[in-house]
Amino acid sequence: TPLLLFNPSSIRESYFNLRSKTTISLSSSSSSLLFAAMLTSRFLTHRVRPVLAQTHKMFLSTTPDLHLIINAVGKDRLGIVSDVTGMVIAVGGNVGDSQAAKLGSHFSLMMEVTLPRDKLDTLKEQIESMPGMNAALYEDEVQDATQTPQIGYTGKFLLEGADNPGIAHKLTSALAKHGLSIDKMSTDQDIAPQGGTMLFKMDGIVTAAAPLAAGFDIEKIKADLEAIGDSLNCDVSLEDA
């Protein structure tokens, strides 16, 4: 079988002459190669490239975002929350639930965010390099509806009275003993208007997972908490939420 030889420059020249509608004479080998090259280019442009682009787009759209918890604590200053949210938005992320509080001279922030997986290192570097802050990122596990624990009971608790050592520990221990988990809690201290006594206040939200335990008796739990309050010279209450 004879070896087919061709000159690439002659093919390019033939192609441009063809586009300018100039009548030319091509050898059979050059014509075949030119026709094949034109078909290949047209196929890549109109068939393969759009498919690859669509496949890449589908891959990116089906790659789940990361769900993270940002925890930052440091000396209080102006603009901490603004700085953190700005970093999240800059990497294409979104801010979800958050809690923040000033304790003494320090500021504490917990924030739930979502962001593209390929931006994790960028956000991590920025968050951990915040001046004057001790910050870290934690990946949060997202559960679907079938895995999310069901709540059997939700209540609001409140403690108010004279401050004394161990008061918070005694109440939280009683809640745990009765199978109640603290979802949110805040405490505060203040001086009584009369007498100068230091007053302590603690309130929050508690829940119990469903199905409730066989011995779960909310009225008995409320009575036990009131008894603890009497022993501590405090008012303790639990109300259904």
From TrEMBL:
Annotated InterPro entries: ACT-like_dom_sf, ACT_dom, UPF0237/GcvR_regulator
Pfam family, any one: ACT_6
Domain ACT: 156-241
Matching PANTHER family: UPF0237 PROTEIN MJ1558
The protein, known as: ACT domain-containing protein
Organism, as annotated: Amphora coffeiformis
Lineage: Eukaryota, Sar, Stramenopiles, Ochrophyta, Bacillariophyta
